Amino acid sequence: MSVTPYSSLPNHCFWRRAHRVDRLIDVDPVVRGLFKIAKQTKVATAGSCFAQHISNRLQQAGFNYFITEAGHPLIDSDVKRAYNYGVFSARFGNIYTAAQLRQLMDRAYGAFTPIEGAWEGEDGRFYDPFRPAIQPDGFNSLDDLESDRKQHFAAVRRLFEEAEVMVFTLGLTEAWRSRQDGAVFPLCPGVAAGTFSGERHEFVNYSVDEVVSDLSAFITATRLRNPSLKFMLTVSPVPLMATAVDSSVITSTAYSKAVLRVAAEQVSKSFEDVAYFPSYEVITGPAARGRYYAEDLREVRPAGVSHVMRLFMKHYVEAGTARREPERAREAQGADSSTAGDEFSDIAKDLAVVCEEEMLDR
Amino acid sequence: MLAIGHSHLQAWRRAAERLVRQGDDVPAITCVSLQEKADDPAAKSVSAVPSGDELAALIDAAMSGERPTVTFAPLLGNEYNAMVLARHPVPFDFILSERPDLIPEEGCELVPEGALIGTLRARISRSVVPIITALAEITQGPVFLVPPPPPVPDEEHIKAYPSKFGARLQRLGVSPVQLRVKMWLLNRRVLADIAREAKIELMPLPPEIFDSQGCLLKRYWNRDPTHGNVAYGEVLLMDAVRRVREMSRAGEMNNVRDTV
Fold it and tell me: What ipTM score was computed for the predicted complex, to two decimals?
């Protein structure tokens, strides 16, 4: 038999061998980490609902989860959670698109001020168009909103300038933006707050080139201020709640995730210290046989999050840095899950994920 | 009349005693201190937040088996002071929706008003709500929840009479008076909501006790950082008596609960 380029490839390059494992949780599409995280490494997170799972687990695993907007210590922890403190590294709410991330950078540094800066509700309260669900009942006044925003942007700037690793989960390609100035909203106006207007708002479904452009611009701009910042890009395995395209949400989801996956790949290959982490493949790969999805075929089960974080610890964490993720082999194999101790606490936290996108289907 | 509560009840009790000694025409008022019962080693089973049965037993004992026709409840009242009397190591402020003219202090962490309301409410719910719920069931007539006095504005007075806040005040200093006023107003709003939910009323404090900043007038300061003195108690007591007499004349004594 002649020697080919395949002859000397390692087992993980072959489908059958990559799946020849004793347990589902041993399926490892990561292979190797691009860099290592130590206990004191300031790890920041941002992104879609799935990124909250990563935030929660990082905190639980004792990492230096970097939060620049934790909420005042006087406030009860339940209240803080309701006000979205600590859900991500700053109180920006879900960031679903690369465009939104780039826009956050621009706004935080004063390079862009959207025309639609506030929405007034019928209740006379004010809502932030770019964080429409950040507070349970909006803001008391315009002054209240703007004062909070000023404080928030200071926290965002500090996050970008001091974080050492930033984990960003790409969620969507579909978005709504202003026709006037291109400001992109996390949710369609009118869903959580505000009023939809066909004159002022337009739909966009970002292409690979656009996502690559926004991510690249963000990484470049951040590194001007924080040259050693490392990035980890992931693609959320959570399907779209709804599509604004007149086609099946199933095909729209496939398109979105494909675009984001390709964009993440291109960007990770274009920059130093930008890693792609395959949480998408872990959850959606054939080996999981759909078992990592909950009954609604959308939410990711704690077992799936555990598999993802187990690989994260294995490949990205310095040896001896953090406790191991609990192994949920029984739950992954479809057995009734009986939880106790840490696992119950993990599940409770996973279930508490704030998903603004779910408002689309209310 | 029944006045039942914790440390802020002292002003009522001393005022009632003084008025009786002076021969003033005031209705009979029974004062039951939950603070003393909680602190009394002989009454260990009574906590500062007594159960309904404990409360009923206390009232029965104090009123010889009779039930009050109207109740005033200056309950607890230091939840907001615990948050704001001493300057927090992480200075904070907020925009009070009802008084946006009270601008937050520069350099402080801005906290959403709603988050402070949520925190205050959680603390007050654990303590005040069980008591007023029980009182509403036990007593026959109207129940008025009495808010704590507004803040003492003078830092020097607070430092001179720090009471149990001494160590903290020495270490951290006193919070700015504007923040304390704002928190008192927020606390009062939370108490009003809680009273409404329990189908009782929040007693409005008489306007004459306030200074121009919304703080407690000097003549009503007690020798501690947070309580009103006997003169304060007299103003509140006479205001309470006036309310009772008005309700009596209007025939409202037995059915006020139904209308709130």
Answer: 0.87
